[in-house]
Amino acid sequence: MGLLSSLFESKNKEPYDLSDIAVDMHSHLIPGIDDGAQSMDHSVGMILRFKDLGYRKLITTPHIMSDYYKNTPEIINNGLCDLREELDKLGVDLEIQAAAEYYTDEFFIDKIEEGNLLTFGKNNVLFEFSFSAKPRLVNEAIFAMKNNGYQPVLAHFERYSFYLDNGEKAIEDLKNRGVHIQMNLNSLTGHYGKPIKKQAEMLVDNQFVDYVGSDCHRIEHLDLLESNLSNPYFHKLANLDLKNRNL
Length: 247
Ligand SMILES: [Fe+2]
What we know:
CATH architecture: Alpha-Beta Barrel
CATH superfamily: Metal-dependent hydrolases
Strand order of the largest sheet: 3-5-6-7-8-9
Strand content: 5-15%
Structural class: alpha/beta
Oligomer: single chain
CATH topology: TIM Barrel
Radius of gyration: 18 Å
Order of helices and strands: HEHEEHEEHEHEHEHEHH
Distance between the termini: 41 Å
Bound molecules: fe (ii) ion
Shape: globular
CATH class: Alpha Beta
Helix content: 25-40%
């Protein structure tokens, strides 16, 4: 083994330091309003862990999905207030904000037109699709967001089954439409399966990733992340121009 490659090998034995990402912008930490944290204790446990891992700010994104999670800006902001109060009481010093993860359906288009979406950073809107079937409203939703002054950020691109065979082409089309791309960190660990891991590696190798997120629903997601940080693909994140760092 040559000197350079042995240096490379030894460097990659170190766990990647998540303080390089600094801000997490996709998680489900508000207790009891979606399939994420189910109690204040769970929520605080996860937040303490994010802090240990080196994050300086969390933007949590409860689901807004018409049939399953009928969350409103009011419900989410009230939950955020309670959570901040609890963190204050416990003396936990970590900035926490809330936006949402919008599910793409006709109700979402109505919400965009109403103009009252929960955003992060400068007008960014995190939105997702069904995992198995491409929604027919993709382009309408993207157009409506752009038209109303929002910056669309597609959640976990690598997880959609209908993009697995045509990832690069799909990314090109989405980027041409002005969409920013978010990747889940745990996709690199194999948590969602091999094809999704491969798609995530494709995103990293081509520098297609605008944001990375934990998509943390439970503490096990952070356990898994922490135990995989020596994976070379995490080290590659240091060379990406991630927008997380400017949030
Ligand atoms: Fe999510």
